[in-house]
Write a structure and sequence with these properties.
This protein is mainly alpha-helical. It has a single domain, classed as Butyryl-CoA Dehydrogenase, subunit A, domain 3 (Up-down Bundle), CATH 1.20.140. It contains seven helices and three strands. The chain has a three-stranded antiparallel β-sheet with strand order 2-1-3. A hairpin with a 2-residue loop joins strand 1 and strand 2. The longest helix is centred in the N-terminal third of the chain and has 27 residues. It is elongated and about 100 Å long.
C-alpha cells in the first residue's frame, strides 16, 4: 500500500502595495497640492497685507498696501513652482530630480518671503512719503492682515508637491514616447501587402488597425 506525501502549502503572502498605485496616488496629490498652492499664493499677494494712517494737514490719511507692494518674491516663486510642476513630465531621471528640487525650493522660498513680509512696514512708509511729500513721514495705527500667512500656506502646498516629486517622481509617467527627439513621429514598420483574395489576411489587417485596401 503506497503512501501519499502531502505537499506543504506556503503561507499566503501579504500583498505589498504596488509601485503603480503609490505612483498614481502621489502624482494626484502632488498635482493638486502644487496647482492649489500656486493659486493660493498668487491670490494672497493681491490682497491687503497691512494698513495704517499718516498725519496730513487735513487729519489722518489712510494707507493700505497689498502683498505685491510689500514683496514680489512669493508671486514670482509661485509661478516658478507652477512651471516646475509642468516640467516634471517633460524630463526623466536626473532631470526630473533637479526639477523636483526646484519645485521644493520654490515652496520653501514662498514660505520664507511671505512670513518675512507679514510684519514689514517699509511699503507703508514709502506710501506715506508719497502722500505727504515728506520722506520722514510717520505711519500710525499700523495693522497687519492674515493674508501673508495664507501666501505661506500656498508655499507649504508647493513644498509638499516638491517633496512628493523627490520621493515618488521616478514612478510617475513622462510625456508620451510617440515622438522621438526633434519632435519627429516614429514610423510604424511596414507590413506586407494584403492579398484581397485571402479573407483571413484582410481580417488580420483589420485587427492590427490597418487599412487592407492599402489606401
Amino acid at each position: 500500500m503506497g503512501y501519499v506525501t502531502a505537499v506543504p502549502v506556503p503561507p499566503p503572502r501579504s500583498e505589498a502595495p504596488r509601485p503603480g498605485r503609490a505612483g498614481r496616488l502621489s502624482l494626484a496629490v502632488a498635482l493638486l497640492a502644487g496647482a492649489l498652492g500656486a493659486a493660493v499664493a498668487l491670490l494672497a499677494t493681491r490682497q491687503r497685507w497691512s494698513a495704517g494712517t499718516t498725519p496730513v494737514a487735513g487729519g489722518a490719511f489712510p494707507l493700505t498696501v497689498s502683498g505685491s507692494d510689500v514683496t514680489g518674491v512669493p508671486a514670482a516663486l509661485a509661478i516658478v513652482g507652477l512651471a516646475a510642476l509642468v516640467a516634471l513630465f517633460a524630463v526623466r531621471r536626473s532631470g526630473r530630480l533637479l526639477v523636483a528640487v526646484l519645485l521644493a525650493l520654490s515652496g520653501a522660498g514662498t514660505i520664507a518671503a511671505a512670513v518675512l513680509g507679514a510684519s514689514d512696514s517699509s511699503a507703508l512708509a514709502e506710501k506715506a512719503a508719497q502722500a505727504t511729500g515728506d520722506t520722514a513721514a510717520t505711519v500710525n495705527t499700523l495693522s497687519h492682515t492674515a493674508w501673508p500667512y495664507v501666501a505661506a500656506l500656498g508655499g507649504v502646498l508647493i513644498l509638499v508637491a516638491g517633496l512628493l516629486a523627490l520621493r515618488y517622481g521616478r514612478l510617475w509617467p513622462g510625456m508620451s514616447g510617440r515622438y522621438e527627439r526633434g519632435g519627429v513621429p516614429r514610423q510604424r514598420p511596414r507590413t506586407k501587402a494584403v492579398d484581397p483574395d485571402r479573407p483571413e489576411e484582410i481580417w488580420k489587417a483589420l485587427d492590427r488597425g490597418e487599412d487592407p485596401t492599402g489606401a
